[in-house]
């Protein structure tokens, strides 16, 4: 994070909360089996950007500031000042817990994902499947999901439980959509790609943002705005991820580059190239298995500005994410940080 004096670093703004969460993970994944313990806590200790918990914490503060009838789960007022008195920023324990649950579900999905993608690195280190084997990686993912479910239940809010449970279905559905070539060739359509992208990436962020707004007991409009911010941010995030898969190196990304096309997965840069070079459809149908399929597709992406168009689409979603909260949420440093976060998503290199 570089920048001028007016901008703030969203990650620094919530550094204290993030380290609180890191401590809390120890308890969340404590289990009386050393191997399961190590496999499950591996990516909780080797942290990534902590993008998701940062967004959730910022959203919690931002909606709480915009919500004059903030109640905690026992319906007692959290802030005792009158609305005219500017109260100090606050976050509910349940909202912090939600940020933790979001990261648990995310890491669980990564442990499964690296098995499916046969990926041997992540976050610049060996993947859990590479270190402990596929079976343990799957089981450690299941274990994290189970602990996330217990934490979720303890929030005693059925709507929030329903939202985050639906996310787990979405992750599975998105992943299955991605790995199957369906008969109608609908995988070729940008619309289907975007739907898949919502399911595999944006749903977790959208529903987590929505859930913290719900925990704040916000008016319906704000709950909706929180969801839409997360949805657009998540779409922008994955679009950039799919562009970086082509433009980044394995070193800069900390995970294998060109992974999608090697997996036979159609992402936005390829779909854009396809509009100009229809022969890519044939390569895609055989999942880029023949010797020159990949090199020809890479050339077509370059000639068709597939990467630029993907980044442009990401920027559009970044804009929509920002617009919604700017019109609705109170102007606070947390709202400002959410805006910065959207810019970070479309400028990041890893
Ligand atoms: C990363 O995508 C993976 C996901 C966003 C979701 C993966 C979901 C599953 C494996 C379904 C099962 C999950 C659960 C929790 C039951 P990617 O492979 O495009 O990104 P990468 O480059 O980071 O690997
Ligand atoms: Mg993967
Ligand atoms: Mg994957």
Automatic annotation (TrEMBL):
Q: State its cofactor.
A: Mg(2+)
Quick one: a GO biological-process term for this protein? ubiquinone biosynthetic process
GO cellular component terms attached to this protein's record? transferase complex
Q: One GO molecular function term?
A: metal ion binding
Q: Which residues cross the membrane?
A: none
- What are the UniProt keywords, alphabetically? Isoprene biosynthesis, Magnesium, Metal-binding, Transferase
Query: Signal peptide position in this chain?
Result: none
Q: Report the sequence similarity comment from the record.
A: Belongs to the FPP/GGPP synthase family.
Q: What is the name of the protein in this document?
A: Uncharacterized protein
Task: Name the source organism.
Answer: Galdieria partita
Identify the taxonomic lineage of the organism of origin: Eukaryota, Rhodophyta, Bangiophyceae, Galdieriales, Galdieriaceae
């Amino acid at each position: 994070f570089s920048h001028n004096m007016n901008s703030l670093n969203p990650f620094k703004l919530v550094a204290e909360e993030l380290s609180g969460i890191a401590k809390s993970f120890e308890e969340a994944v404590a289990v009386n089996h050393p191997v399961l313990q190590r496999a499950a806590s591996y990516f909780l200790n080797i942290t990534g950007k902590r993008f998701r918990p940062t967004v959730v914490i910022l959203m919690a503060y931002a909606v709480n500031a915009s919500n004059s009838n903030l109640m905690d789960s026992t319906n007692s007022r959290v802030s005792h000042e009158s609305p005219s008195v500017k109260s100090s920023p606050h976050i509910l324990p349940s909202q912090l817990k939600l940020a933790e649950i979001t990261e648990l579900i995310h890491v669980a999905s990564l442990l499964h994902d690296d098995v499916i993608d046969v990926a041997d690195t992540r976050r610049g280190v060996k993947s859990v499947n590479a270190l402990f084997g596929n079976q343990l990686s799957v089981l450690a993912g299941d274990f994290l999901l189970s602990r996330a479910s217990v934490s979720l239940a303890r929030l005693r809010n059925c709507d929030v439980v329903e939202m985050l449970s639906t996310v787990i279905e979405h992750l599975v559905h998105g992943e299955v959509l991605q790995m199957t070539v369906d008969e109608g060739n609908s995988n070729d359509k940008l619309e289907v790609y975007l739907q898949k992208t919502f399911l595999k990436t944006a749903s977790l962020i959208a529903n987590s943002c929505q859930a913290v707004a719900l925990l704040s007991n916000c008016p319906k409009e704000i709950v909706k705005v929180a969801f839409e911010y997360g949805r657009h941010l998540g779409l922008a995030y994955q679009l950039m991820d799919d562009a970086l898969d082509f433009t980044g190196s394995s070193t800069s990304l900390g995970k294998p580059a060109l992974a999608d096309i090697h997996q036979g997965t159609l992402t936005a840069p390829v779909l854009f190239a396809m509009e100009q070079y229809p022969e890519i459809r044939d390569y895609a149908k055989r999942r880029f298995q023949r010797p020159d399929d990949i090199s020809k597709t890479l050339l077509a992406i370059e000639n068709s500005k597939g990467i630029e168009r993907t980044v442009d689409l990401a920027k559009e979603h970044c804009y929509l994410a920002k617009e919604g909260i700017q019109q609705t949420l109170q102007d606070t440093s947390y709202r400002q940080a959410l805006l910065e976060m959207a810019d970070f998503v479309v400028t990041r290199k890893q």
